[in-house]
Amino acid sequence: MGKYVIAGNWKMNKTPSEAKALIEEIKPLVKDATCDVIVGVPFVDLQVALEATAGTNIGVAAQNCHWAKSGAFTAEISAEMLKEMGVGYVIIGHSERRQYFGETDVTVNQRVRAALDAGLTVILCVGEYLEQREQGITAEVCAMQTKIALQGVSADEMSRIIIAYEPVWAIGTGRTATAEQANEVCADIRKVIAALYNDAVAAATTIQYGGSMNAGNAAELLAQSDVDGGLIGGASLKAPDFATIVAAAK
Ligand code: PGA
User: Fold this and answer.
1) Staple 228 to which of 32, 124, 205, 206, CB 3.0 to 4.6 Å?
2) What is the pLDDT of residues 44-66, one digit of tens each?
3) pTM surpassing 0.85?
């Protein structure tokens, strides 16, 4: 994995046939990318996404996984199941999971552990609510989420952790963090990693920004010293916009 990673988070969008069509549209537009490119698709789209991306430079991510290997957890999907399919990545701890589906820092940690054990690479999402930013506790919130999520993760395993800083107030709102705000928090998270591990691990870790990143603002955000990529929601559903963001990640 390279340092710069642009990942699309499709959320609950695109049926399998629509997913195939979108990937076919994205493929030629990103084939010369100098960063890593990932599409994060709904579970039912994983198979077509894997088939459509086979032999290309596009990786496939699931949007969640359970912490147990198997068992009585109706409707859940394990990391092992994803791994066997050929999925390489899994998004864990997205704020929509935390906000609407009872995800906690502790279950995020359990899912991270399960994903690493299965051999997946994790895109770990952290980020503050607007009230927390206004209270001046953004750094503390992100540090806490990061530390708890990474409990029991070794320095070696950090090569399979991507962190996505996603301020909740910027997700799907059209209200992007300024490049300075994004860079400041990404740098704070990098300091947390340096304290947990060491400077080399911190420097090598990919820290993305996410939250209303689009074709128009990506270049400025991605030019920041501590922003190593993006996790893109809405704009990842439009192939030309996603490709523009990929091209901006140099
Ligand atoms: P957005 O979503 O780009 O639509 O704001 C980002 C995300 O939730 O990962």
Assistant:
1) 206
2) 999 999 999 999 999 999 999 99
3) yes
